[in-house]
Amino acid sequence: MPLSMSSAALVAALVGYGSTVALVLAAAQAVGASAAQTASWLLAVCLAKAAGSAFLSARNRMPMVLAWSTPGAALIAASSGITMAQAVGAFVVAGGLIALIGAVRPLGRLVARIPDGVAAAMLAGVLLPFCLKGLAVSGGLGAGGLALLAVFAVVRQVNPALGVLAALGAGLALAFGPWGMALPNFAPPHPALTLIAPHFKLDVLIGLALPLTLVTMASQNLPGFATLRAAGYEPPVAQALQTTGALSAVFGLFGAHTVSMAAITAAICLGEDVHPDRAQRWKVGLAYAAVWVLLGIAGPWVMAILHAMPPDILTLLVGIALLGPLTGALTNAYATAQTRFPATVTLTLTTSGLGIAGIGSAFWGLLAGLSLLALDHAAKSLRR
Q1: For the chain, which residues make up each domain, given as ranges?
Q2: Rounded to two decimals, what is the model's pTM?
Q3: Helix then strand then coil, % of the chain, to nearest 5
Q4: Which of 97, 123, 134, 188 is 20 to 30 A removed from 103 (C-alpha atoms)?
């Protein structure tokens, strides 16, 4: 395998891991995961990505690499009153729904009919509180927080994909550098998968599993397929959805949230600099899978270091990591004039954190936006 493939796979995996691993740990904390369950979550989601990337790339002879659902992790981190067992039940159901969308064509068409503006507004409503909180704590960090933001702003001008990774490096230097804390003395346990019995609770399935399915589809799978098409490949959509859905359901039993097609990190693996022969580029998926196995094994050490960081630095890093996805979500939410007001209602209601009957605000925001669109269409029909 050429060095260019190995280096592209390494950079893509490190960008995907380093930019949002703190958010995954925040999601685990939000649902009350124990240390062992959090370690299992991190290992399981890395193994799911490795297995899916290797299988889809080798089967279809094209570089098909997977990512964990970053918006999904944000959705989980924003939840409250949900136990780890209930979250696992939602992960399993979400994976099953994604696989079902791939297997049942009418169901796929039904999901595709959800207006992009409303779906994007729901995603923006999930992400916005994290960005606001992250930037709010930056003032308390003084010059260190300003330096961290400056590193992110400067590096992303050179390479947007590496901006968040550079900010993570700056955050680690700020936390554990000469003027920071000493690195913790730790002996993390060996990584191991922990089977977690799922608890299927109706309000959690409606409030978490359904929005998790939709944000994974709208913000990760669809852009992932578009990225492959832009590079000259025709992805097997049904097979990819069935594979990522099945992996999400199986590894969800060990705590992993949903995996999906990658978009930003996939672009790193698709260029001519990876391999001049497009027919050979699929092998980067194997190298990418190998890196994710190694990252999964290193999970306990990563957890120990991030947990030892000052909370404000970690909060700021999460906020920075989600600025890019938030920008994309807001752009799509307001791209079409006809859906702007329903999108605004969806965004506002989702951001509010409103919970009714134990069901989270993401579901109610989506329902409100779709209801307003239906009302608009009905009123226009009556006026004709």
Answers
A1: 3-181+188-383
A2: 0.80
A3: 75, 0, 20
A4: 123
